[in-house]
Amino acid sequence: MAGLELLSDQGYRLDGRKATELRKVQARMGVFAQADGSAYLEQGNTKALAVVYGPHEMRGSRGRTLHDRALINCQYSMATFSTAERKRRPHGDRKSTEMSLHLKQTFEAAVMTQLYPRSQIDIYVKILQSDGGNYSTCVNAATLAVIDAGIPMRDYVCACTVGFVDETPLADLCYAEESGGVSSLALALLPRGGQIALLQMDARLHQDHLETLIEAAMTACKGVSKVLDEVVRQHLQEGSVLTGE
Amino acid sequence: MAVDMRLPTIRKTVSLSVDAFDRKDLVVPGDVITSDTGFMRGHGTYVDEDNLTASVAGEVQRVDKLICVRPLKTRFNGEVGDVVVGRITEVQQKRWKVETNSRLDSVLLLSSVNLPGGELRRRSAEDELTMREYLQEGDLISAEVQSVFSDGALSLHTRSLKYGKLGQGVLVQLSPSLIKRQKTHFHNLPCGASIILGNNGFVWLYPTPGQQEEEAGGFYTSLEPVSLSDREVISRLRNCLLALSAHKVLLYDTSVLYCYESSLQHQVKDILKPEVMEEIVMLTQQKLLEQEG
């Protein structure tokens, strides 16, 4: 490990959190009037904006129409100013394409697409500031946007990244930890049923540790889901009061 | 020219009544509504291991044994008889595709429009070729929902002289849930403009027409210049609609008219300022309450 002590002897991490502690999550729903659904979510210093259009008629390539369910179309992009070094291409590179695919898989597991045959649901997510855990922040923001659009979902999808350092799982990694050579794992969970929507790990880890790591990720996701739940309920109350019904 | 600029502030909303908080009938996706199997599953719900579970965030509505969850904001779910305002997106064989804020594009069949020349005209192959002369891509129409297909797409018709192509006016796109269902959605407001409150959330504002040429069958569009005073009234109405929708007030002829009246002391462009908006909406709600009882 390159000189950085990711977990101190006292059990504190680089940014002063405990091993299982999440970063502060703040979110708002319905930030745009034009889109069907939108949300803004901050997870520590990682900030994401998600917009949902649809379900609507297939636009562009008609050939992709699915006759028994809706097509989910995701686009992940990072603002050019989101990272320490300015990015050249906000979207369309390998990494973003892969991320778009992951998002699509995640939401196909949660959204009840069979209710909307022949239509299309667009989910656009943009990272405004990147400080680790981009995938999970995107998933959490997009969940809120989908709920805001009134699209039926089985449950919330909550995501979290966890890393493994000194035999201890660390929840919700920040950029310094992610780049510090930690073997990290991203997990998207439907918290109520405990079903996994997506699990991704591309680092080496002893298989004995995998279970504890997944366990830690699930706990972290459930923590995120509580915060999202609060945000949605707050939004719901504000909205329903006003329609006065 | 002076430009009005201000710092971002938290949006405030008019008339928050405290008792409406902590309502029990609000659910979020994944919430179990009931584990009793005697209920029927409606929109916005699904069955998960014998539990009736919500799939959208909204309020629970119970009609006898049927449980539905109605989301706060959603696309237009058309029903037969709804008045809609839509835009032509495509001209196909014997049909037009119309964008109506629904989850699929609606269909307007050539056989369900009134062509110029009377009710009983036969539709020939020639009509099919000249469809684009009646309605082309980008045109706005008002129509009524004739039927709903199994996949949720709507079939429209314009078989009445009040429906048809829209000429000069202003389109305002709002949330469909804000439009109050009424006997009529066409209103000639006494302030000098007319309004079509489409059930799909599209609202059309236009100068009140004079005597119309009946033979045109709804495809006649007047290109006469609209007077400045009419345009001012329409602009004011548009801003009033935006103000009402920002504060989630139900839209119908009375609420729009009251809002128009309470906005008269302000300039048209000022109506969109948050504090003016708030004041106008407050006055409107007061008037509506007085009128009710």
Helical content of chain B (DSSP H or I, runs of 4+) = 10-25%
| Gross geometry of chain A | globular
Order of helices and strands of chain B: EEEEEEEEEEHHEEEEEEEHHH
Enter the CATH topology name of chain A. Answer: Ribosomal Protein S5, domain 2
Give the rounded overall mean pLDDT of chain A.
91
Helical segment count of chain A: 4
Structural class of chain B: alpha+beta
Q: H/E element string of chain A?
A: EEEEHEHEEHEEH
Proportion of β residues of chain B?
25-35%
Low-confidence stretches of chain A: none
Overview features:
heterodimer; A: 245 residues; alpha+beta; Ribosomal Protein S5, domain 2; B: 293 residues; OB fold (Dihydrolipoamide Acetyltransferase, E2P); 4-stranded mixed β-sheet
Structural account:
The complex is a heterodimer of chains A (245) and B (293). Chain A has 245 residues and is α+β, with helices and mostly antiparallel strands. Chain A has four helices and nine strands, in the order ββββαβαββαββα. In chain A, helix 1 packs across helix 2. The relative contact order of chain A is 0.17. Chain B has helices spanning 125-129, 131-134, 228-246, 253-263, 274-292; strands at 26-27, 32-34, 40-41, 45-48, 51-54, 58-63, 66-71, 83-92, 95-99, 106-113, 140-148, 154-158, 164-165, 170-173, 186-188, 193-197, 202-207. Chain B is flat, with a radius of gyration of 22 Å. Chain B is α+β, with helices and mostly antiparallel strands. Chain B has a domain at 39-71: OB fold (Dihydrolipoamide Acetyltransferase, E2P), CATH 2.40.50.100. In chain B, helix 4 crosses helix 5 (274-292). Chain B has five helices and 17 strands. In chain B, 20% of the residues lie in helices and 29% in strands. The A-B interface holds A 30, 36-37, 54-57, 112, 116-119, 147-156, 190-193, 229, 232-233, 235-245 and B 13-17, 20-23, 26, 28-30, 44, 46, 48, 53, 55-59, 71-75, 89, 97, 99, 103-105, 151-152, 177-178, 247-248, 250.
Give the SSE map.
The complex is a heterodimer of chains A (245) and B (293).
Chain A: E1 25-29, E2 37-43, E3 46-57, E4 71-78, H1 94-110, E5 119-129, H2 134-148, E6 158-165, E7 168-171, H3 175-178, E8 183-190, E9 195-201, H4 207-243
Parallel strand pairs in A: 4-5
Antiparallel strand pairs in A: 1-2, 2-3, 3-5, 6-7, 6-8, 8-9
Helix pairs in contact in A: 1-2
Chain B: E1 26-27, E2 32-34, E3 40-41, E4 45-48, E5 51-54, E6 58-63, E7 66-71, E8 83-92, E9 95-99, E10 106-113, H1 125-129, H2 131-134, E11 140-148, E12 154-158, E13 164-165, E14 170-173, E15 186-188, E16 193-197, E17 202-207, H3 228-246, H4 253-263, H5 274-292
Parallel strand pairs in B: 3-7, 10-12
Antiparallel strand pairs in B: 1-6, 2-5, 4-5, 6-7, 8-9, 8-11, 9-10, 11-12, 11-13, 14-17, 15-16, 16-17
Helix pairs in contact in B: 3-4, 4-5
GO molecular function (chain A): RNA binding
GO biological process, one term (chain A): U4 snRNA 3'-end processing
Domain Exoribonuclease phosphorolytic (chain A): 21-152, 155-219
